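Objective 1.3, modelling of assemblies. Example input:
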Amino acid sequence: MSTATTHALQEATRATVRFAGDSGDGMQVTGGQFTSTSAMIGNDVATFPDFPAEIRAPAGTLPGVSGFQIQFGSIDIHTPGDAPDVLVAMNPAALKVNLPDMQPGATIVVNENAFVPANLKKAAYATNPLEDGSLAKWRVVKLPLSDLTREALKDTGLDPAEVDRCKNFLALGVMFWLYDRPLEPTIEWVNTKFKKKPQYADANNRALRAGFNFADTTELFTSHYRVRPATHLPPGEYRQLSGNEAIALGLVTAAKKAGLGAFYGSYPITPASDILHHLSGLKHYGVKTFQAEDEIAAIGGAIGAAFAGELAITGTSGPGVCLKSEAIGLAIMTELPLVVVNVQRAGPSTGMPTKTEQADLLQALFGRNGESPVAVLAPATPAECFTLSIEAARLALTHRCPVFLLSDGYIANGAEPWRLPDPAQIAPIPVQFATEAAGFKPYVRDPETLGRLWALPGTPGLEHRLGGLEKWDGSGNISYDPDNHHHMVALRAEKVARMKVADAEVVGPQEGDLLLLGWGSTYGALLTAAEQVRKEDGAAVSVCQLRSLNPFPKNLGQVLGRFKKVIVPELNLGQLCLLVRARYLVDAESFAKVKGRPFQVGEVVSKIRETLAQASGRSS
Amino acid sequence: MSSASPAKPLPKLTRKDFTSDQEVRWCPGCGDYAILAAVQKLMPELGIPREKTVFVSGIGCSSRFPYYMNTYGFHTIHGRAPSIATGLKCANPDLTVWVVTGDGDGLSIGGNHLLHAIRRNVDLKMLLFNNRIYGLTKGQYSPTSEQGKTTKSTPMGSLERPINPLRFAIASEATFVARTYDTDLKHMGAVLEAAARHKGMAFVEILQNCVIFNDGAFDAHVDKKVRDDQLVYLEHGKPLIYGAQKNHGVRMKGFGLEFVSWAPGATPPDDLLVHDVHAAASYSYLLTELESPLAVGVFRAVQAPTYDALMNQQMAAARQKKGEGRLEDLYREGASLWTVGAQAGNGSGNGH
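Predicted structure (tokens):
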């Protein structure tokens, strides 16, 4: 590295950076580029994009602040990090919103040009924080970002507004220098993106280089950091993958492995729309996408496609699931395969659409009329969105019933490095359609899976009628017989109960002081917190993250019994906790957080320590 | 999912082949029996094998229909039949899909789905049984009930203005719109056959008598005694003439219609409207104002690409352009890749 000044290059194992600015400042793109470059040079990464629901809230205001946090490292990274080591704040509002998350001593890079009276007023600052001493606890790097961008792009011929839009790349260049990352991947990305507008490509690349060089030649930072490639990642070809992308890829994989076309019925809804966007570009893989008039028609279309023999999927978020409830019941009653994806967001009602939450578990399990059991799977990471989408499809197709996949906004938008799987290593999903007309009855079922015959319209001799009225087991005729109804209710529950799901896995000591029982996207924080307490306190603290919420893994009761204390951290008021207490009569304790944000490692560590201290207090 | 059927000649089917073994459970005297008979009679004439025919319905008296047809069938949930039929037809365009709905199912709880299935021009045969009452729930007013109607839920008369199903369909850009009634098997048969042969959304309102809760709702027009004077039979290419003695007609007056009469046996005026099923939608819409006498027959029949065909054309075009997608390519498509292992990336890159 040729450096104009003598900055020390220090080694670091990990770092956390947060980019924050107006929702029009391009913070998501900036964070995304920092992430892909970090991943491409071999770091492990975890990201947390955090943006407002408003597309363009009034510029410079507090509700308009958009953020993107990334933790990257040479070590195993499970979360986007609690507190940023570096905050890039593009304006006073971004500073104000994000300052509470900053630990003393951390670095704050600000665009000092944005700290003008009008912006300070919008952010409700009485005095300029860059001048009033209120930031003394932090290392503040004042960067004239707007001036530098104007200077770097002065002879490009772009108008002032266009020039100003490039300042995020100047900031990105600075951060690339600070963490010793190459510029080439971003330059390539810019060139591809602005292929048809080379003047914009040139401007963004100039800004990027200008930022890098400015940091390199000035004394802004006393040192910069090298974070070496992670060594724990198995060899192979990698890409970045968000949870929503992973669901799309997983569903297509499942359809191919089953030899079926896929049909995705959906209605635009945050944060699930990206699944629709991804799948709509994959028609050549045999994927039909149906953007329906509403949530009900979206699932209706999917159920019609299931009747016709396709892998039927509907995807939405919690409010959409409310509307789909009756149709899910129809799929249960007609015993048709259906995957229902819920990318959960903060509720109730419209709630906080862009914020994450896990409060739809009981809705998935019980939110319908009658006894209407469904299987429920929950991926713990973006990559698991891929594997569990395949698993959800496998269960639905095998047992002929709806299966829920509960993702959430956090893993839907968060990304991690993903090793490309070898498609040959993914097990096929055997699907057989009924063809034999002699003695055909639509509700004759496989004695093991309890899945009924799947006879497709178009097959001669198998004409039959499905419907939401109770069916006589076997013949499928309408029945009001009391004993048959009891039998069918039990049978539909048994179908889910006997699904083969993986055993619950304990990470950490297999028995001990305390078990964190979690599900879904909290995994990274729980894992990191447990590791920290084991290392620092020597306590036997483990994590068990459930991937299947219905049915529960067969060994779960035993696992719970092996720990003195069970804590159930959830981003809801204790829904899983309620279930395990009822099911296993275990004195599990809920650790609830419902703030529209993921768990921080620190708060989980505190909860573990508090619980262990109470326990030892009681036993001494 | 579609597969070509073997090229052997179809066995000659009869009405009986389309009759299921289920006991029909409508009230004695219900108009639904006649509609069922007309449909079962039509089926063998269409030459479409039983297994390629699917009847989809929602909830209500009319929606029991699929159980009585010996074809594939799906009795779904209230109002949602058009959406399920859309998915079915898109997944397998080889099927002939009929939807059976009612005035409550189709125009109240399912109004939104009906609107969108029509505007998309999904290739569905949409039969709306209009009895102007909620029958299965025992007699509440429906969206087609006349204003002021006294029912169990409106003891002082209903407050709502009724919706005209045909106006709804035409305004939703339906490519085929027709009206028939349950007491004329021949007319019903002809209209249903025209609907069946239309490529695209075929919307048919069938005036249907509910003998229990709204008996005689359409008698003023369809009763045999008054029918000739109270119905205008629309026939493509023919002037709008009606009456037992064929001495009344319809012509334009300003932006509206007017009735005109002449002496029985005399030459009709030469400015009578000549029915044209291909004319602009505003013409079809205008005909819906013929309420007394009431226009029946095919109002409109125009050609437009169907949603299901377009969807499958896009699938084929994507495959032609990019080739049949393989999983090996799926994970790479559009992604930036890097390798970890022997030639793992260097951590000390720089921008110079």
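Chain A has a mean pLDDT of 96.
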